[in-house]
Design goal:
The complex is a heterodimer of chains A (251) and B (640).
Chain A lengths: L1 E8 L3 H18 L3 E5 L4 E5 L5 H5 L8 H8 L5 E5 L3 H10 L7 H14 L3 E4 L8 H10 L2 E9 L2 E11 L2 E7 L12 H11 L6 E6 H9 L3 H10 L4 E3 L6 H4 L2
Parallel strand pairs in A: 1-8, 2-4, 6-9
Antiparallel strand pairs in A: 2-3, 4-5, 6-7, 7-8, 9-10
Helix pairs in contact in A: 8-9
Chain B lengths: L4 E3 L2 E4 L2 E3 L2 E4 L10 H10 L4 E5 L2 H4 L14 H10 L3 E5 L15 H4 L15 E3 L4 E3 L6 H18 L9 E5 L19 H15 L2 H8 L20 H28 L6 E6 L9 H6 L5 E4 L8 H14 L4 E6 L2 E2 L11 H13 L4 E5 L7 E2 L13 H15 L5 E2 L3 E5 L1 H8 L30 H15 L5 E4 L11 E6 L5 H12 L3 E6 L18 E2 L15 E3 L4 E7 L4 E7 L5 E17 L9 E9 L4 E7 L1
Parallel strand pairs in B: 4-5, 4-14, 5-6, 6-9, 9-10, 10-11, 12-14, 17-18, 17-19, 19-20, 20-21
Antiparallel strand pairs in B: 1-2, 2-3, 7-8, 13-15, 16-23, 22-25, 23-24, 24-27, 25-26, 25-27
Helix pairs in contact in B: 5-8, 6-8, 10-11
Classes of the chains: A alpha/beta (251), B alpha/beta (640).
């Protein structure tokens, strides 16, 4: 989905910083899972178990539902049990994931799969689905696309991003071309015209969203699905809504 | 012998002292037609140096041939800088990072098994880069090192002639952020056969003979090749594990020393050789030991943060100021990586202002702003990719460079009567308990793994908790302080009080130095215990006469009174003193505006240096009221 040669430049600093803040907050939120490392008979280490001490102490490690049991007793979003006895197998599976022809994106996905599918790992609820897979599949089907995201905070443009997809992979990410000195209240129509004029290829799809809508997407469990839901509100798309409806993506 | 000298916090060449104020510009990531415009932009911001990688990965083709033409004509780029009076530091690697696909190493070299670093499982360590992933090299591999020498020779042939005074180059970086590829985890790397051979030689020298090693480790190796390194915190010999952690520190110093020697042999004898680690001051890094051992001339620390990390930045600066002969940040964040799927962070111009003021008020005398010009995979620099200035980022740089020229902090001494030492022996012991080194990834994005499960350093142990608590006691007393490492304590003459957490161990170097200081009247405080053994578990001949702290708060009773007091605990205060003037700086480390009264003991005229310079000094007084915006700074010069 992301080309190893991806070119990312000339981004609007403040708008992009806002997007990065959302991504960082999302990552921090996911970091508060309850982790237990054990050897089948003893608990060897825990992380984020401050409020689950008795539940961890009472854990039956030979119980195949141990993770689910602990999830019900501890106030956490996810429980992960790591069995030391299967650790070598996990190491081998992770090594096997590093096929040299993979892109970084595919490598991350392969490692995540190897981790969740390892016999060393027991988790509850069910391992998270690869939420980005439908998007990657959609981009692969379309091959070449030029996309833009325009986010408004009231009448003011907060973030403008243009992405170029070639052969299913994002090869370029740039600002939306508003540049220094541009009117902060430039309309979506004007920006789209500007972007179309700047490049030989016209934009295939433009998503226009409010700050609140994008922030809500980053709060959702499934970020790409939440963005796709915006596509259901077709009026938000200045162009190309049909490319990214949940049905067309196959989500 | 280098033609560049370090002179009281600044650099000196041909009799001219100058401050290291540079910005990173990656020539190959700009259209060469924009080079002059970008360099003019650097001057416009008030900086006097540029800094650039010379990335091996970019210059070397898959067939091993080298390309220095067009956008890769680094010599021409440097000549353009020289023509403008700019000086330069160059970074020929071999590591770069820089969001390159293979961190600066040519892929065809790191693909060779004999060049690859190995994990404790014996398998290569795969590191995700910004856009791909690659097996990291082993710096113990003679095959890899031969390739590095070939590269250094090629760089020397093209650029050594551009060292000052014939060209702009005054500093050359010896590798970038070396230190086991972001792996603090003690047993993650490196188990390359030649690294293991180096470990064997290290322990044989430590113990004197194979028999002595066998006795110490409880092993019965028939020959040195029979000695096996520990691969996990569950290894039964704690001494063997501790000496593995020691070896990693030693290996890093030795390798940097060898690389520095090879750079000199390649022609870079005139330049200052420096190294930088990312903001890590714990094992395997020891910046002061790197300088003291002569491995490299200057060891700095890189730091990136939002304004909310101001307290962290000030402590990194304190560490650099206490441990380095040239307190500077080889990378001080100016913008951030523009790949939000990899370590996302929102960095703005307001962050730049707080972070920079924090670094310089707390002890930095110079720095390199990374990146000064936007480039591929980076955002938020004061110059865009074509060299146009970007506001409000650019105006901050102009104000800041004018401020440092006027404040002349290099002529003053920062008031630090207290020194807090990181308990290196204790933290090595913590590191030596690490497990899971065969699977620990460098980034969370690879898999959702919690480092604290296998790396005790990721979860605060008792020694680390004491260190943090003692730091808090010093902070609450309103005192600035020095920060250093117990394995290589700095000169102690300026300190009235030295504090170090001790559970059981204290480095032999610290025991001797601190005991001598205590005899001279320095109050040396240790707790919760007094040291009983050194870093290799050898019992001390006699217990040092330190003041024992039963609780971190006990330290407060021994701390001196601050020379400058402020009325709000959210405000950090810094005092730089000279014979006829001093500088007082305040940093509001909170997200709310504060009204603060600053009080000094002797009446003086206060002249504002930051944020607004006043031409006319005010009347003589001992207090000053001011309003600091959230994460804002204020600085005055005080004179009789």
């Amino acid at each position: 989905m992301i080309s190893p040669q991806v070119h990312v430049t000339n981004l609007d600093p403040d708008g992009f910083a806002w997007l990065c803040d959302l991504a960082a907050a999302r990552q921090a939120r996911d970091a508060r899972w309850l982790w237990v490392r054990h050897d089948g008979t003893r608990v060897l280490a825990t992380v984020n178990a401050e409020n689950a001490g008795p539940a961890v102490a009472a854990l039956r490690l030979d119980d195949p539902d141990a993770a689910t049991t602990l999830l019900h007793q501890a106030d956490v979003k996810r429980v992960v049990l790591l069995d030391d006895r299967h650790r070598p197998a996990l190491g081998e599976a992770l090594d096997a994931a590093a096929a040299p022809d993979l892109t970084q994106w595919s490598y991350f996905r392969a490692c995540q799969r190897a981790f969740w599918e390892s016999p060393a790992v027991l988790t509850a609820p069910e391992p998270p689905a690869d939420a980005w897979a439908p998007i990657a599949g959609c981009l692969a089907r379309h091959g070449d696309l030029d996309l833009a995201l325009l986010v408004y905070d009231g009448p003011a443009l907060l973030l403008g991003l243009r992405a170029s997809v070639r052969e299913g992979a994002v090869v370029e990410l740039t600002g939306a071309g508003q540049g220094p000195g541009a009117a902060p209240t430039v309309s979506p129509e004007e920006l789209v015209q500007l972007m179309d004029r700047d490049r030989e290829r016209e934009l295939d799809a433009v998503l226009v969203a409010t700050r609140g809508q994008i922030e809500a997407c980053f709060e959702a469990d499934n970020l790409p699905a939440a963005v796709l839901d915006l596509a259901g509100e077709g009026a938000l798309f200045a162009r190309g809504a049909e490319l990214f409806t949940p049905a067309s993506v196959g989500a | 012998m280098s033609a560049i000298a370090v002179d009281r916090g600044l650099l000196r060449t041909e009799g001219e002292r100058f401050r290291w104020l540079s910005g990173s510009v990656h020539y190959w990531r700009h259209d060469p037609r924009d080079w002059e415009r970008v360099l003019d932009g650097v001057l416009d911001l008030g900086l006097n140096m540029i800094d650039t990688y010379v990335p091996w990965e970019v210059h070397e083709r898959a067939d091993g041939s080298l390309d220095f033409s067009g956008a890769l004509d680094v010599a021409r780029f440097l000549e353009l800088a020289h023509a403008r009076g700019l000086r330069a530091s160059i970074r020929p690697g071999p590591a770069c990072g820089a969001e390159l696909a293979t961190h600066g190493y040519p892929r065809h070299i790191v693909s060779r098994p004999e060049c690859q670093g190995l994990r404790c499982s014996g398998r290569p360590y795969i590191l995700p880069s910004a856009s791909h992933f690659f097996p990291v090299p082993s710096y113990a591999s003679s095959a890899f090192r031969a390739e590095v020498r070939r590269w250094y020779t090629a760089v020397g042939q093209r650029l050594a002639g551009l060292q000052a005074p014939h060209g702009p180059i005054v500093a050359v970086q010896v590798d970038n952020e070396m230190g086991f590829f972001f792996q603090a985890h003690a047993f993650a790397l490196d188990y390359h056969p030649e690294a293991i051979a180096a470990w064997r030689a290290f322990v044989l020298e430590l113990h004197g003979s194979l028999d002595a090693v066998n006795r110490a480790y409880g092993t019965n190796a028939a020959n040195p090749e029979g000695l096996e390194p520990p691969r996990d915190g569950s290894d039964p010999s704690e001494l063997r594990r501790l000496e593995w952690v020691l070896f990693r520190e030693h290996h890093l110093r030795e390798t940097l020393s060898e690389l520095a020697g090879e750079l000199r042999e390649s022609g870079f004898e005139e330049s200052l050789l420096f190294h930088n680690d990312y903001a890590r001051t714990e094992t395997p890094m020891d910046q002061r030991a790197l300088e003291a051992g002569g491995a490299i001339q200057v060891a700095g620390v890189d730091a990136y943060s939002s304004r909310k990390g101001g307290r962290w930045i000030t402590d990194v600066a304190r560490h650099v100021a206490t441990t380095s002969r040239l307190p500077h940040f080889p990378e001080l964040g100016s913008g951030w990586i523009s790949l939000p799927w990899l370590i996302p962070a929102g960095i703005r111009a307001t962050d730049q202002e707080m972070v920079t003021m924090a670094a310089f008020l707390a002890g930095a005398q110079g720095g390199n702003f990374y990146m000064l010009a936007d480039r591929d995979r980076w955002y938020g620099s004061p110059l865009d990719n074509g060299g146009s200035v970007r506001e409000p980022h650019a105006s901050f740089f102009r104000r800041f460079t004018a401020f440092v020229a006027e404040a002349r902090l290099d002529e003053l001494e920062r008031e630090t009567a207290v020194l807090l030492l990181e308990p290196r022996a204790e933290l090595r012991r913590e590191a030596a308990r690490a497990v899971l080194g065969d699977i620990v990834p460098a980034y969370r994005e690879v898999m959702p793994f919690e480092l604290g499960l296998g790396d005790p350093g990721a979860v605060a142990g008792e020694a680390r908790r004491w260190q943090r608590a003692l730091r808090q006691v010093i902070r609450e007393a309103g005192l600035d302080c020095g920060l250093a490492v117990s394995a290589s304590p700095p000169p102690l003459a300026q300190y009235a009080v030295v504090a170090v957490p001790v559970l059981e161990l204290l480095d032999a170097a610290a025991v001797d130095t601190l005991a001598a200081a205590a005899e001279r009247g320095v109050r040396v405080c240790a707790g919760p215990s007094l040291p009983r053994a050194d870093e290799r578990l050898a019992p001390l001949a006699r217990a040092p006469q330190f003041t024992r702290l039963h609780h971190p708060s006990d330290l407060a009773a021994y701390l001196p009174t601050p020379g400058v007091e402020v009325s709000d605990a959210a405000v950090e205060v810094f005092r730089w003193r000279g014979p006829d003037r001093e500088v007082v700086g305040l940093l509001n480390q909170s997200d709310a505006e504060v009204r603060v009264t600053t009080t000094v003991k002797t009446a003086a005229r206060w002249r504002a240096l930051w944020p607004v310079r006043q031409a006319t000094p005010g009347e003589t007084r001992t207090t000053h009221d001011t309003t600091l915006p959230a994460y804002g700074a204020a600085v005055w010069e005080l004179a009789a």
